[in-house]
């Protein structure tokens, strides 16, 4: 390809706005006459496209009517059900069937002093047992203020 024709090809693919407008006016003039080659080519292409689309639509309709269409996707499975409560679990249970939180009346052995404490009272007991909690924080505040 020579330098000149390369430049012409480039101008064809990336024409200036005025050149594009000129090209559009030229195309419009071609389609203005229904007997022109451009008009008849576009009409033939349009007819072919309509024909192909109609074929696809008729075939899809026939398949649906005769039950030849692929079956619809199966319905979604039901959501998983929580497990039954474990034997001995009291109160509300989680999805694994475990009582959570444990019943407040359940006895828990303190790992510090070894006493058995009701589960509902275990947190305050542990605070006292470990020397923290509200009492010691109040004492610390009093110490800091006084
Ligand atoms: Zn304790």
UniProtKB/TrEMBL annotation:
Gene Ontology biological process terms from the UniProt entry: chromatin organization
InterPro entries in UniProt: SAGA_su_Sgf11
Region of interest: Disordered: 1-22, 64-100, 127-146
One annotated Gene Ontology cellular component of this protein: SAGA-type complex
Protein source organism: Raphidocelis subcapitata
Keywords attached to this entry: Activator, Chromatin regulator, Metal-binding, Nucleus, Transcription, Transcription regulation, Zinc, Zinc-finger
Ranges annotated as biased composition (Pro residues): 69-85
Protein name: SAGA-associated factor 11
Localization: Nucleus
Tagged with keyword Transcription: yes
Similarity-based family: Belongs to the SGF11 family.
GO MF term set: zinc ion binding
